[in-house]
Design a protein that fits this description.
The protein has 3 helices and 4 strands, in the order E-H-E-E-H-H-E. The chain has helices spanning 15-27, 57-64, 67-76, and strands spanning 2-9, 34-42, 47-54, 85-90. It has a 4-stranded antiparallel β-sheet.
Length: 96
């Protein structure tokens, strides 16, 4: 399993719209290697933490550069005050 973790700062007044829109952008990757996606919010700091879990690194990499991802990232950026900061990780342990 592989994770893509992004942090971003939300524009004042855009939190609710961004939260409502995010699942639609992520849903496009179900069936393309996406296992699950989570969006965390620090309302006081206007900060998002997005974690998407992928079947493997290749699936994540292919989707990161896909037209759907590029379009979704461009659309979602209207809610952000700067570019998202992505990182990727191997998932090496889980507790379920």
């Amino acid at each position: 399993m592989f994770a893509r973790v992004m942090t971003s700062t939300v524009k004042p007044g855009a939190i609710d719209a961004a939260v409502a829109e995010w699942p639609g952008h992520i849903q496009a990757f179900k069936g393309k290697g996406l296992i699950a996606g989570y969006l965390f919010l620090d309302r006081e700091a206007h900060r998002f933490l997005s974690i998407t879990l992928w079947e493997n690194e290749e699936a994540q990499r292919l989707n990161a550069s896909s037209p759907e991802q590029i379009h979704g990232r461009d659309e979602f950026s209207k809610h952000l005050s700067g570019p998202p900061e992505p990182r990727t990780y191997d998932v090496v342990a889980t507790v379920a």
